[in-house]
Each structure stands twice: as C-alpha cells, then as structure tokens.
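Why predict the complex rather than its parts? Because the way molecules touch one another can change local conformation, and only a joint prediction can capture that. The input here totals 1716 residues.
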Amino acid sequence: MHIDREILKGYLLEDTGRGDITSEALIPDTDSYAEIYAKDEGVISGLEEAAFIFAYAGAQAVLTASDGETVTAGRKIMEIRGKARAILLAERTALNLIGRMSGIATKTNRVIRKIHSLNSGVRVAGTRKTAPGARAIDKKAITAGGGDPHRFDLSDAFLIKDNHLVLCSAAEAIRKARDYSAYKKIEIETETPAEALIAAKAGADIIMLDNMEPGQVSEASMLIKNAGLRDRVIIEVSGGVNANSLESYAVLDIDIISMGALTHSVRNFDVSLDMKPGVKNFKIHI
Amino acid sequence: MHIDREILKGYLLEDTGRGDITSEALIPDTDSYAEIYAKDEGVISGLEEAAFIFAYAGAQAVLTASDGETVTAGRKIMEIRGKARAILLAERTALNLIGRMSGIATKTNRVIRKIHSLNSGVRVAGTRKTAPGARAIDKKAITAGGGDPHRFDLSDAFLIKDNHLVLCSAAEAIRKARDYSAYKKIEIETETPAEALIAAKAGADIIMLDNMEPGQVSEASMLIKNAGLRDRVIIEVSGGVNANSLESYAVLDIDIISMGALTHSVRNFDVSLDMKPGVKNFKIHI
Amino acid sequence: MHIDREILKGYLLEDTGRGDITSEALIPDTDSYAEIYAKDEGVISGLEEAAFIFAYAGAQAVLTASDGETVTAGRKIMEIRGKARAILLAERTALNLIGRMSGIATKTNRVIRKIHSLNSGVRVAGTRKTAPGARAIDKKAITAGGGDPHRFDLSDAFLIKDNHLVLCSAAEAIRKARDYSAYKKIEIETETPAEALIAAKAGADIIMLDNMEPGQVSEASMLIKNAGLRDRVIIEVSGGVNANSLESYAVLDIDIISMGALTHSVRNFDVSLDMKPGVKNFKIHI
Amino acid sequence: MHIDREILKGYLLEDTGRGDITSEALIPDTDSYAEIYAKDEGVISGLEEAAFIFAYAGAQAVLTASDGETVTAGRKIMEIRGKARAILLAERTALNLIGRMSGIATKTNRVIRKIHSLNSGVRVAGTRKTAPGARAIDKKAITAGGGDPHRFDLSDAFLIKDNHLVLCSAAEAIRKARDYSAYKKIEIETETPAEALIAAKAGADIIMLDNMEPGQVSEASMLIKNAGLRDRVIIEVSGGVNANSLESYAVLDIDIISMGALTHSVRNFDVSLDMKPGVKNFKIHI
Amino acid sequence: MHIDREILKGYLLEDTGRGDITSEALIPDTDSYAEIYAKDEGVISGLEEAAFIFAYAGAQAVLTASDGETVTAGRKIMEIRGKARAILLAERTALNLIGRMSGIATKTNRVIRKIHSLNSGVRVAGTRKTAPGARAIDKKAITAGGGDPHRFDLSDAFLIKDNHLVLCSAAEAIRKARDYSAYKKIEIETETPAEALIAAKAGADIIMLDNMEPGQVSEASMLIKNAGLRDRVIIEVSGGVNANSLESYAVLDIDIISMGALTHSVRNFDVSLDMKPGVKNFKIHI
Amino acid sequence: MHIDREILKGYLLEDTGRGDITSEALIPDTDSYAEIYAKDEGVISGLEEAAFIFAYAGAQAVLTASDGETVTAGRKIMEIRGKARAILLAERTALNLIGRMSGIATKTNRVIRKIHSLNSGVRVAGTRKTAPGARAIDKKAITAGGGDPHRFDLSDAFLIKDNHLVLCSAAEAIRKARDYSAYKKIEIETETPAEALIAAKAGADIIMLDNMEPGQVSEASMLIKNAGLRDRVIIEVSGGVNANSLESYAVLDIDIISMGALTHSVRNFDVSLDMKPGVKNFKIHI
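Output of the joint prediction:
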C-alpha cells in the first residue's frame, strides 16, 4: 500500500515542532551511525516508512529486515548513516511508526495463526476503527501481518448498516447500490440468520453477521448454503469476537472474521535506536 | 489544549475519502437525531473534537457530559441533530476520537488514582510515544485524565539524552542549553544515582532517572536531597514502570512518573451511536 | 458524491489570484442580485458546487433547478444575493463548474438515451481520463447524467491490464488480487474472446473487452454464457466505441460500455450570469 | 510558464488515491522501460509536466520531442526507465496531462494557422474558461500552441465589464483603475462601435469588442482609427467567433481574437504508453 | 486587495502553536469585551484582517475606524466581544497585523504628502522587497496609504533588468515580451538617459530610471519628451531615493517613485488591546 | 533552529506567482553563475535559508560566509551556479530572506554589544512582535545575532499577563500553571516592585518587570534579593527600553532585556546579487 509522502512528512513535523532545540544547541553535527533493534518478537512493519523519514531528515537508512518478516528480540532491523542532528531529528517519529505498525502486524498475525491452526479457509480483516490520522499506516500494517485491510474509507465499497435499513429495505438498498456503480462491492450488515438469508438472496456480495453467537453464525451459513448461494457470497463475522471466542468462530463455514481491536487497541512493538557516533570509541560524559 | 481545526478536518477527510457512497446512493437525506452512549466506565475525552466533526459535516451536537468527567456504561454523552447523511458521514470519525481519547484519559486516570492512594505528591506524565498523526489528541487526553502532557515535541523543552552526552559533558550541555534560551526548561536523562547528582549540581531543572530500580531511585533522590538541591529540581522516573512495579516507585520521594504506555498501548473506550431518524416509530427493513 | 470543500476552495483561489482588482478598484460594494441561466439544452450538474463557491465568497445562492434535471435553454437555474464584489469574485468559477459538469452530464445522458432506445440493460461508465484536477467533479457529473463513475482512482478496485499480465498469468493475478482483499472488485482487460473466457473462468468479477469489434464482443459474451458464467461476471466493452459504432455494441449481450470521451473531450454547456444590481432600474454607463 | 510543483503532485495524488493496489498486489517491482507515442497529429504540450510526474513517482523520463513541437501519429515522444510500479503509478496522470495539453495546443495552433493564412497580424488568445483545477496547464498549453494566454486570474489586469459599468461610467472606471496601479493593463468590454470609441478616448489599453458582428467590428476599428487612436489601443474581438465565422473576423483591422472554446471544449490528443518490461522477450500471460 | 483566508489563518496558527496554554490553564472562559487603541498618529491598515482573525478565533470585532483612515493617538479603532480565551488567542496576531500594516500605510502616506506638496502628479510605489510571508499584507498596506502596489510577483508584469539585457538587446526583449502576451505591461530598467530613450523608442510601457541622479533623471525625461514619447511611457524613478533626496526628484517630470524601504524597513505603528472582562469593576489580583 | 521546508517553499511561491514571465519569455536558459555581496556591515543571517531557496529552484549555492558571522560591506557571502532562469526565479526571495534576517541579527547584536560593554551578565531577548508569516525566520535571526528567541508561540511557556490577573490572583495563577505541566517555565508580568516580590515568592520562574523605570527595576531586584530569591528567578525587563534608556537598565541587577523592536521595526541589511552569465565577457545590450 502506497503511503502518500505528505502524510509521512506530517508525522515528522508533528514531532519536530520548531526544531530539535536540544541537538541544535548542544552538539556538533558530526557524521554518525545508528542501528535500530527489535526488542520484541513479532512481525515487522513500518520499515519503509521509517526509512523515508530518515531520508527526508537527511540521513540514509538501510533495511536489514523486511516489512512482513517475523523477527525475534535482538534482531537488527535498520542501519542509519548521516549527520547526528538528522538522525536525532527523525528518531522518535521513525520508532513510533515501526512500534505501532509492527504492533498491529504482530497482533494480526497471531490471530491469523490461531485461526489457521483450526481452519485455513478463514481470513482476518480490519475495520475503520483506527487511530485518527493513522488510517493509512494501520491498514498497511494489517496487510503486513497477513490480514485483509477491509474498507479504507466510506467510498471504498458499499456497507449497508442498520441505520440505512431504517430508511429502505435490504432488497431496495442492494438494488440502489448496484445501480450506483458496478465497480464497488456491496456488503450488508445483518442481525439474524433470517436477515442474512434475505440479504444473500437480494444479491449482496458480502454478508456481515453482526454480533451473532457461533450458533447463529452456523445457522446463517447453513441457510445460505441450502439456498445454493454459499459460493456467491462472502460471509464476514464481526463484533464480539475476542481471544476467548475466536476458536468457536474459526471452525465455522465462514470466510472472514473482522476485528476492530487489531487497530483500536494496539500494544506497541518495542524497538530502540542506538547511536554509534561515527568513530570507534565513544564514552558518555556526565 | 487547543487543537488546530485543520487537524480535525483531516481526520474526517481520512475517513470520508471520495464520500459516503452508501448513504448517498441509498437513503433520503431526512432530518435525523442520534445519541452517543458510553459502553465502558471511565474518563471521557474527545467530546469537543467530536462535536466539531459533526458541525463541520453539517450537524449540531450537544454535549451531555464533559471532557474529563467520569462516566459509567450506559451514560448518554452526546445528542446530535441534523440531516441523516451528515450524521452518518461524521459518525466513525467522531467515535474514533472519543474512543481513543477516552481510552487514554481513562488509563491515565487509573494510574493516577493508584499512585495517589499511596502518595498524593507524585504526578503522572506522558511521553512522545503517541500514534503517528495523533500527538495533539493524545496529549489532550492525558490532560483530561489528570496527567501532565510532558513535551509536545522536540522544541518544547531541552531533554539531554545519552546520545547528546556522547558528544559533550552534562555540565557543558546544561550550560549550552541555558545560553540558548532562558525560556525553556532543561531536563537530563541519567542512568545512575551518581549521574543524577552531577546533573542536579550542574543546574538541570528536571532530572530523569531512566530505567532505575526503586532502590536506585531512592538513592538518587537521597543524594540530591543531601546536597540541598531537592527543592531545586524535579525528579522524574521513567522506563520500566508497569502495573506491577508502579507501587514500589509511587512511595518514593519523587515528583513525576512518565509512562509511554499511556499512549503507545491504548485500549479503546467503547462508545456507540444510535440513529433515531427524526420521527417516533422507525423499523429496520431487511 | 461528496466533494471535499478544500477542492472547491482551490478552484476559487485559482481564479481569484491576488483578488479581483477590477471590482475592488472600481465599484462600490452594494447589495446585489444575480441570476444564472442555461443557454443550452441538457442535463444540469454543478449547481451544488457553484452554490458553495458563492457561499464561500460571501453571497447566498438559491437553486431553481436540480442537479441531474434536464433543462432547456433560457431556464433560470440559480438566484444569487449578496454584495456585488462577492458575486463577481465567484462568477467565473461558478460558471466554469456548471459549464463543464453540465457538459459532461449532458453528453453522458445522450449516450445513455441512445443506448437505452436499443437495449435498456446496458449501462454507460466513465474512465480515469478526466481533466487534471477535475476528477471529483467529472465523476460526479457522470453520475448526474445517469452514468456509472467507474474507478475513481487506482485504489478503488483491481484492474488487471496487459502490463500486469506481462509479469503473471491471468489466473495467478486474479488469485493474488483476491488474496489481497475481499472488499474490492477484480476487473481484467482482455484482447480476445478466448482471453475473456479464461478470465471469467479464473473468477474475475468484471471482464473488460478491450478494443474488440462487435463480432468479437458477441463471441466473447457467447463463450462466457456457454460456460455458464454469464451471471457471474459483468461484461464491459471499452475502447473504440464512438458515435458511429455505438449502436452496434448497444444491442449485444453486455453490461457496460465505458467511454473516456465522456470526460476527456468535453463540450461546455453554455450558461451565463446576469447581475441585476439591487434596485429596479439600472443602466450601463459607457 | 512555471507550474508550481504542488499542483502537479496534486494531480498524481488525485489519481493514486490510497495507492495502486493492482500493481502492489500482483507484480514484482522489476526494472522496466516504457515509451510514450503520439497517436494523433498536432502540437505537443505537457511533456515537462509528465516528466515531473514520473520523476516524483521514482522513474526517469527522457523527452524525445519538445513541448511546442508539431508531431505526427506514431512519433515517440518520451522514454521512461524505472521500477514497474513507479511507471504504472504515474502512467494515467502523465497521459492525461499530455492528452489535454496537446489537445489545447493543437486546437490553438490550428486556429492560428487558419488566421495567419489570411492576416499575420492577428493573434489568438485564451480566456478564463478553463477546466476547474487546470488553469495553469491550460494556459501553458495555449502558449505552447502559439497563443496568448490572456489574463491568468482576476488580479492580472483590469477587465471592466458590463456589470461594472452598471455602477460607474467607462471614463470613471478607467480613471479609477489607473489610479489603483500603473502596472496593470486596463481592458474594457464594449457592446457597440460607439462604446468602443468612447473607451478608446478614455484611455483604455485594450478594447474588447464583445459579441459584435464583423461589420460592427470593422466600424469600431475604423472609428478608433479615425480618432487617431488606433496605435494606442489593442483591439480584441471576443464572443461568437467559431469555425465558420473565424475568417470573416480574421481579415479585419484587429489585434486579437480570444476564444473560450480553446479550453472549455477540448478534444484530447491521443497518446499511449507501452511498457517494455526491462528484458528482451516478454509475453502476456492470460 | 482580497487576502486569501488561508494566509490569515496561517498567521494565527503561527502564533498559536499547540494552543494558548496560559489562558487554558488559568482562567475561566467568561464573556469578555476588549478594545484596541491607536497609540501613534498615522494611517490605519489591517483592521479587516484583524477582524477576520478574531472571527476565526470565535470572537466578534466591530471596526470603529476604517482602513485607510488617518487617526491620532488614543483613537479607539476596534471593539471585540467574545469569550476571554478567544480574544486572548487572537490578540497578538491581530495587533501584529495592524501594527505592521499601519506602519507601512503611514510611512507610504508621509512620503506621498511630502511629494504632493511639491508635485501632485507623482505617485509612490512599492517593490517586491517585502517581509517573507507578508507580501499580500504589505502590498495592501501600501494601497491603504495611497501608494501603488507595483508588481505583486514575478508573473504580474514584465520587468526587464540588467540580468536579462546581458542575454538579449532591449529592443529584442521588448518584442519578445509583447509576443508573449498583450495583457501585461512591459517595464525596463535603464541605467543612463540614453538607455532610457532607446527603451522608450523600443516600445516599453514603463521606463525605470535605476539609481540615476536627479540631473540624469531630468535629462532622461527630457530626451523622451523631445522624442515625442512622453505621453506614451510611464517614467519610474527607483533606487537611491531617501528622505534627503526625495524632494529633488519630486519636482521632476516623472510619474512614479518606487521605494523598497516602504516595506523592507518598517517601523511598527503602536496599538494596544485592553481587556474589559465582561462586567464593570474589575481589579488585577497579584 | 530548524525551519520547516514548507515555510521556505511558501516564500518562494509567494514571489513566483504564476512564474517568472520575463525570464521565460526573453532569455535562453543558459548555465550561469552569480554572487551575492553584503553592502552593509553587520551580522549575517539567512544564508542557509537562501541556499535552500536556490536549491529548490534548481540551482546550487555555496556559502562563503556563515550565518552568525560579522561581515563588512563588499564581502562575498554566497556563490550560485545553475541555469539562468533558476537563479533569477529565486533571486528576490533569497535576498529578502538574507536582508531581513541579517537586519534583525545585526540590530540584536548591536544592542548586545552595547549592553555587554557595561554588564556582561545581561541577555537580550525578542518578543512575539514579528512580521506576520516571518516568526520562524525572525526568531532564528535573533539567535544568529546572539540573542534569546524568547517564546516562539503561545504554547511554549506560561506568560501570565494583566489580562489573566484580572480573573485570578498571581499565586493561584502560578499554582494552576504548575499543575498543568512541570515542563514549561512560568513567567509573570508585574507592574510594580511589590508585585514583583509577590510573584517571586509565589514561585514564578521568570519575573517580567513591565514598563518600569530604572529606579523601580532596581527596587524590584533588591526586594527579590533581600527575600533570598534572587538566584531562584530570572528577572526580565520589558517595555520602554530604547537606544537612550538602554544603558540605564543595562547596569542593573537583572538577567534579560526583551525588545519588540528587534523584529517589529527592522531596517533591512543591504545585499545584492550579481549575475555573471557563464562565460567571461558579457555585455548588457540596451
């Protein structure tokens, strides 16, 4: 997923403010060298973005791991060469990018591996519950972890929700959506197995089973199958899926489980940058 | 903390993309009414920002709770009136703002209450480990939870770290910082009680005790006190403080505990919006 | 289709430059009234955008026609009230919006009416061949004319072209696209009826028949039908369709005809604004 | 004419959206080579802008024709080297720029050649009737075709129109404009030969004869000449000039014919890009 | 002169940073009232811009003087009503605008009055030597003071300087400029009376006499007059005009004196804002 | 101080407008060489910014002096190589930057030298009275001249003014500020020596003595010293300090004198650029 450079520049500016007064006031701008290390185990994401940040600040980064790769704690994932002030200017922004994105990629990947140990046919997808300002990186991190990014924004695909169904029937909604454009998928939120069947018959591409118990999900899937529509629709389970209930859903005849928690409740992946200032021996003076 | 309107508009645009095709294609743009409810217990934050989002989209929000207030699950926190499409356009952005900000405010507040049960003189502060693009709202949410936002960016205050001390001594660094400007505080990172004492003697305003064990922290504080400098400096404990170790630090003679986890590892506060489309009786058509 | 306000403001600024020096230097800023008239027959589009431009400049517009409505020459389509300078500042930008968008809507609509006179089951779609900077308004105008906007940009849907097929087979491409996300449609460009059949079997959602003669299109459609896949795919004819050949394609068993000329070769719809300066009798002084 | 880079970047982003998902999901990012060919005959424009787009996307373009040059169908006008994804990301934006700008340059040039075959002393100028968002490129394309760009925006020169003359006399308007600034030309719109004479006497730099028949134009020009003012003013004919009437105006004693149709009713110049993926033999896999 | 709102918003943001932490932390957001007073004598400018700043911050300003009006010290020039925090947020930005703009308007006006006491036919113009970021307001302030803003930027008019004349002759330069566009004036910089005459003969609209002594200026003017071209050209004196020499130039047969010092060496006009917090009696608590 | 590139690009665009029509229409784009010379004596500032402007326009600048260095008239301070049009495009913006910034740096430095001849312990600081749009460069120029930039904007530090003290007492204000954040200094404005003492006792970091006579300043300083607080606070004198009174303040027991005039009333430092077009002998053709 291509992330617009202006977004990344904005992240750096957000942390830079009026400039890094500490480095400017205190230190000579010597040629320097730094390394970034993983301090957790998981799937790395955000290296390309971090490298751009260093480049924009005036330093050169070389990736020693790849986005999407699984690493263990202690792995060196990036080397940076440049002036000391450039590296320090970009440090926190780069680490925040890798930390958040790898946190999301790792969480996504863990869920997927758990599901695939039971059923390799079920995918994991994100939602639009991302951190404000972080939509692009959060979605890219899900992809890095092996997940499906789902809708990026309100214009990506139709998603017919209860609030729309207050004002028109499912069949009418699907027809109107299809009339609007043939180039967007049509997803519909359903609350009961019966609704799911109606939606599948009405021609939705994706049937979201919202907050249904495993038993209901199973029933919805069966109704759709019995109607001969199972290979015409994608069945997405959403809502109420957590670490405990995940396995009960994973074994069912569904296609996707979508989880807001992949991006709205993230645990940062720990990374750190070590400056090695140019020359061999250096010593901290306190 | 005043959040620049352009940042908030950017959050809405990030979720809007080319427009809410579902609402535009499907539903009439009727006068509508909606409510937002808390589904967790905690400290609310983000209501002002959410209200701006609705206003910018063309709907009017009335706050029925205040930012910084503690609420319980089920509490109605906002009422919105406007065209259906305006409300639906803004919904997810508004909820994401309240969800993340209240999650941070709630976590901050829990840590503070735990500390204050032991020592009312210790404050809790954030760090710059925020989600990319969310610095302003993350810092404001910490304030809503009762915390100290700490440095907003690299230009707010001097923070002399090991990477700087590789290139000049603590005393020289502090002198240079003071020469640069009298209007910014000078903080310095120290690794041992001895370093902390040196830094205090050199005239730093804030002594950060980085990754020290409670015993070391206690020793550093004592050394500074014995040197007659305790009321001249602020002592900040940073690194390695977690739910388990929090109490061991809270009881010491320190001023601030700063924690990156307040913003880098957030659990969303759950909120939901219920549309009540204009008139009394409405029914979902599936 | 919701058009981001910043885009519209940008259009006004593009025409304003450093300000309307003529009005500022010459005329008193009196309360004024103006009307916009259609001078052609066709489908109107751009009224909402023009009204925003006037509002942003400080005047109030009332629509006396609706976007998507068919009008005849002489029809009053908008009334504007406000200070003379505000109206004159916005005039050209507003007229350019209505002129271009109505031109596109009218052309789209004429093609559709021609096709529907032969076959009501075939739709007309745009392409990405829009004027630089005008993507959003060009797509909205197509919708106003009754057309399908097609992909808005490169992230809307998969469109597998010859340049991609140089590097992987159709089947592999479709599988990779499906693995990437279940929420985007997969379209593939084919050059021969045989390729079209392969693509349909491989599971593409939309088969584009690129630059095929009517006979080839007919054959492609038949092959797909005979394979029992006709109701599984959308067949789009693209390239080489013009006023002369349109009818030969319209009668075939296809779903969509897409035409770049709807937006890349536009004839403006003529509209004009008449100032009626506040009071009843006014006279031009030369 | 220098086109601000931010405008060009905006054109690319408009087409990129969240990124080229097809190329990202499907193909390896191999070193590639592509060529752009003219498929029409006419005056090329937009090559510099297209080259910038490729450069910004990360590929290198070499121009094999020049902006302003007349080419025939089949002429190779650009070579591009770079990663496959970079080339494909920029392709449509680059082609849209060349297509529209060359279309305008070609049309402008055809009108000029037709006029000059009759009267080499008459110039052709554009108007502000450009596509929203395309002012800068539309004006540059007119220049490439040999035309005069006319006012770029409302601050470029004074243009006194009927709406201004409702509120003050021509003489007063010209005096006020002159008092405002000596560095801007003063043009005035006139409806009759008599008005044209009044305006010339009042000291306008440019007299626009708006929607006058050839006979009236001839009379206006004569009146001005007889008053000894012909070499003091520029006479611009505007409105109602089309392919049929062009010649009747071209032979008169005037200086400029301005035509909105040069930019408001454009027929794209056809160009195409052929990828030649790096190595010698490549084959499309369907 | 219309100043783009985004420029003015940018000025406020420049002073606001992350928000007015003092007001947010310290004071209740009560309804308040404030007044702005002139503390110098001179020509006021910037009131409209200051009023916009207050409005954008959420307060309402009423002008009690007009831009361009001459005021004496002690004159109340604006009243503001709104929340205390809104007024304080906007205060410094508003005062900086009025201070700089009135300083420029006042200086411009003093020069004009001095010149007009000797020769009412000579105008005063600015240059492009404005403060970076302040071009629009600096030019508007010159206009408020009665001056001519001269070129706003490099695209406003042709100004042929020595650096251009190194590469082509004056006659060729003027011809090329005229060929480029008939809608822009052509000014040329000359160093001697002889050059001035050549330039006038070549058809320049404006002859700049650059750094010439009064005697040379007089000679240049005479040469042009004797050639019968005096009423065909505008003569601008530029460079080396200061308080001492101004009168020697003012009495000559010239049209304009342009002075960079009007904007590059400004003395702020002193203004102050007095808060009168809502109710009658208030007292400062220290 | 790091100046955001977007600010500098904005300065160039402000002067460029639609492009440098003179150079584009008139001259061939030959390889060229230019030099910038100081024409005044003083402290140079703005060279880094000017070099960026040339680089962004496509030319290469080499600094032959350093920001902060004292130069005499005639000193070559920069060499530029590049295409003629690139150099001419950037010329005025670059000179305006150096002119204003060196003007501020020179004035700041003169004040400092005057003060230090009497008392080396007193610093000079700026204020927020900068030109709109020029905050970043004005502050950097003060630093280049040896001064203290003071608050950059409203979020840098607390500055409690009379308008705040209307609504709460000094002691309460200082306590609230301290509660808000430990990372920002707290300054308070006082009008009398007695108020200054109260503020010092209440724990302010910086005591501003606003518009006090030298005698009052002396008394305030003494009161604070006698209370044993002199080494706890920074004493800043502000308001009413001018060339005449400067010495009376400089000899007192204070820390800082802040002066708005450093940036609100600037006299440009004179610099000029000489084009030396590529080859040895060149001659101006008029």
